[in-house]
Amino acid sequence: MTLALSRFEQEDIAAGVAANLRSDGRLRTDYRPFTVESGIVSNTSGSARVRLGLTDVLVGVKAEIGEPDQAKPTQGRFEVTVDFSSTSASAAAFDDDNTETELASAIARTLKGVDLSALCIVPGEQCWVIYIDALILVAAGNAYDVLSLAVRAALANTRIPKVEVSDDGHGRVELEVSDDPHHVTELDIRAVPVIVTLSKIGAFHIVDATIEEESCAKSRVHVAVDSKGAFCMVTKASAGGIEPQLLFDALESAKQVGQHLLSQLEATLKQEERALAMFPNSQRGFLTDLQSAT
Amino acid sequence: MLSRKLEFVSPEGLRIDGRRPNELRRIQARVGVFMQADGSAYIEQGNTKILATVYGPHEVSRKNKPLHDRAIINCEYRVASFATAERKKPVRTDKRALDLAAAVRGAFEGAVMTQLYPRSQIDIFLQVLQSDGGNRAVCINAATLALMDAGIAMKDFVCACSVGCIDDTPLLDINYIEDSAGGPDLTVAVLARSRKTVLVEMDSRLHIDRFDDVLRLAIDGCQAIHSILDSAMVERTKALLAGAASGADADL
């Protein structure tokens, strides 16, 4: 996720960060506004598209019946894949599978603390498998954060059909999956965190880095924060080191920014729901005006 | 077994989704979806939803060899894992995807004025977000709009349409269920004004006596699609003009 920047550009960005006034006028801990649209892929169990700056991520969630993890026989499970769409500007630059698997495993790790016992159908034999497939349509900085926001929004949008389990009297079970669109359960997503990525530039850290800022960051920390402010995952990425004190400061701002992001996401989703209730036939998704995005 | 039970055209002459045999699905098109691409377009045709992005003309990438007298067209086609009714495991090299990409490239090699861009490359990236039949045709239509959005010189609109034929009835713009009936599926792409065909592909077999009707219906479908694509392009151009007049960033 890097651009080739000249030394002068790099120095300019670093000076801006040091002065707490970044090139787009933001403070170090300011987040850009993002847009969320959920339920725009009709053949999924849940979907959401999140845009932040030019970065554009679409997540589709599909619930299918499968076998539970043998280590957790009474729980459902998540499967996460991330794909850089070829529509992405720098698809060629991202073509190594590494980044895709890195992103997917980061998301999978943030979801580890989520209790999925509600997704169990027959303990040890059948459960709901929640396939989370993310498509990075445009990668223009801060992919981790946008991806985690989109995953959370898509999970909030997910509806799982109710299943009737009946015994046929010979020790075999029969499953009857309801096909009534109103006979569904929602996922409990309260424990799903968001990722806040902090980039170290000079002696300071910033949140929501643009692609230019990412390109001159010495090191990055991905922190997953849940609504209670607890850390669900902390990963230091890229080559440079980070001082202990700076790491503490970074975690503190991650906590604040993360909780703020979560409440903002919640508010945006509620607002969308209200708007949909009022104008159910309004045009959404990729057909809407591009200018309203920014 | 599905096809035997299902009635594809009811005695009243209506199809499964309520259309007449010679009726298109609802088509909604939008030109200019992404800002950072040279050209982009999005088409919803019924429940088939496809994004097309175009980059170029630019320097030829390392994989390809430049041609001294014209541009290379590079085409990639991908289906999102959640696009189909049953989730598909993501695969890197899908034979059918390569085949479809090659067909789209072939259609545009006959329509893009590649001789104007020697030693360069034009990329067409197609991304299926939701798949419900007719992907090949919708891809071509979306790519036409994206190429025009990128300002690449073309002889004409390339408009594509697919036609199936079930129980001797030609069906325009077949959806996934009609497609899985196993009958013939003809995809035709034409240059809108000259009506020259730049792509003709048919799976399965069809009696020679019926072929004429099927092809004619497909070309009629292409004509209808042309007017939809044309109005999407006009709308986009008007928006650009309005943006330029109000002094906003013309790129928006």
TrEMBL record, chain A:
GO molecular function: mRNA 3'-UTR AU-rich region binding
Subcellular location: Cytoplasm; Nucleus, Nucleolus
Major place of residence: cytoplasm
SUPFAM superfamilies in the record: Ribonuclease PH domain 2-like, Ribosomal protein S5 domain 2-like
GO biological process: exonucleolytic trimming to generate mature 3'-end of 5.8S rRNA from tricistronic rRNA transcript (SSU-rRNA, 5.8S rRNA, LSU-rRNA); nuclear mRNA surveillance; nuclear polyadenylation-dependent rRNA catabolic process; rRNA catabolic process; TRAMP-dependent tRNA surveillance pathway; U1 snRNA 3'-end processing; U4 snRNA 3'-end processing; U5 snRNA 3'-end processing
Pfam families assigned to the protein according to its UniProt record, in alphabetical order: RNase_PH, RNase_PH_C
InterPro entries for the chain: ExoRNase_PH_dom1, ExoRNase_PH_dom2, ExoRNase_PH_dom2_sf, Exosome_comp_Rrp42_subfam, PNPase/RNase_PH_dom_sf, Ribosomal_Su5_D2-typ_SF
The keyword Cytoplasm belongs to this UniProt entry's keyword annotation: yes
GO cellular component, one term: nucleolus
Keyword Cytoplasm: yes
Occurrences of domain Exoribonuclease phosphorolytic (ranges): 31-161, 192-256
UniProt keyword terms in alphabetical order: Cytoplasm, Exosome
Protein family membership: Belongs to the RNase PH family.
Protein name (record): Ribosomal RNA-processing protein 42
Organism (species): Capsaspora owczarzaki (strain ATCC 30864)
Origin organism lineage: Eukaryota, Filasterea, Capsaspora
TrEMBL record, chain B:
Name by which UniProt lists this protein: Exosome component 4
Entry similarity comment: Belongs to the RNase PH family.
SUPFAM superfamilies associated with the record: Ribonuclease PH domain 2-like, Ribosomal protein S5 domain 2-like
Record domain Exoribonuclease phosphorolytic: where: 23-152, 156-220
Subcellular location, principal: cytoplasm
Keywords, comma-separated and alphabetical: Cytoplasm, Exosome
GO molecular function terms listed in the Swiss-Prot or TrEMBL record: RNA binding
InterPro entries recorded: ExoRNase_PH_dom1, ExoRNase_PH_dom2, ExoRNase_PH_dom2_sf, PNPase/RNase_PH_dom_sf, Ribosomal_Su5_D2-typ_SF, RNase_PH
Location within or outside the cell: Cytoplasm; Nucleus, Nucleolus
Record keyword Ligase present: no
GO cellular component term of the entry, any: cytoplasmic exosome (RNase complex)
One protein family per Pfam: RNase_PH_C
Alphabetical GO biological process terms: nuclear mRNA surveillance; poly(A)-dependent snoRNA 3'-end processing; rRNA catabolic process; U4 snRNA 3'-end processing
